[in-house]
Structure formats: C-alpha cells, structure tokens
Write a structure and sequence with these properties.
Largest sheet: 7 strands, mixed
Distance between the termini: 40 Å
Shape: globular
Order of helices and strands: EEEEEEEEEEE
Low-confidence stretches: none
Number of strands: 11
Radius of gyration: 13 Å
Helix content: under 10%
Length: about 120
C-alpha cells in the first residue's frame, strides 16, 4: 500500500511558476512509476507527466512540454512537478499517482489532489 500526499498548489498569475510536491509512504517507492494527472471542471482527466522508478525516463503531455518538469528523490520518497510559464488552461486539480508502466501507464494509487488556479 502506498499513500500519497500532494502539496504546493495555489493561486498564481499567468506566467508564474509553482512546484508541486508529493510525499509517498512505504518502502517500495523506488519500484513505482510515478505520474501526475490533472482534471479541470467538466474536463477529462489528463496524464501530464510521468517518471520511471530510477528517474531515467520521463513522459510529458505535448501541451506541457518545455514548461513542466517532473523529478523524484528516492531517498526522500518524494516526487515533484515544476510548472513554469503557467497558463490559465493549466488550472486544474493535480493528482500524484504511483503505478507501473506496461506499454502505457497504469496508476494503482492516487493522492487527494492539490488545486492549481492560474489567473489571467
């Protein structure tokens, strides 16, 4: 069982930056592929970024490439999402997940989410 707790969301002006963090419990953190999803009201949930267990492989949704950076610290059981050049369309609830990559990402565990609101 893995428990995930996100932090770092908030209200920011367009063009600003945020760093989302996710703290994971358990001793199997480094075995899990970690991913960030987001969901805006009335929108489908999107897989925006992911990182392999060793941190040597990453995935980004096309619309966030160059602005989002995912990283992890296996010694501290944390994963981060650095978001730069924020746009109003980035407004959403952001969820940290842990799972596995088998041709595509399959999340097994979800955090409660942290809200990001970008004002224009």
């Amino acid at each position: 069982q893995v428990q995930l707790v996100e932090s770092g969301g908030g209200l920011v002006q367009a063009g600003g930056s945020l760093r989302l963090s996710c703290a994971a419990s358990g001793r199997t953190f480094s075995r899990h592929y970690m991913g960030w999803f987001r969901q805006a009201p009335g929108q489908l949930r999107e897989f925006v970024a992911g990182i392999s267990g060793r941190g040597d492989s990453t995935y980004y949704l096309d619309s966030v490439k160059g602005r989002f950076t995912i990283s992890r610290d296996n010694d501290k059981n944390t994963v981060h999402l650095q978001i730069n050049s924020l746009k109003p369309e980035d407004t959403a609830n952001y969820y940290c997940t842990a799972g596995s990559w088998r041709g595509s990402y399959l999340p097994d565990y979800w955090g409660q989410g942290t809200q990001v609101t970008v004002s224009s």
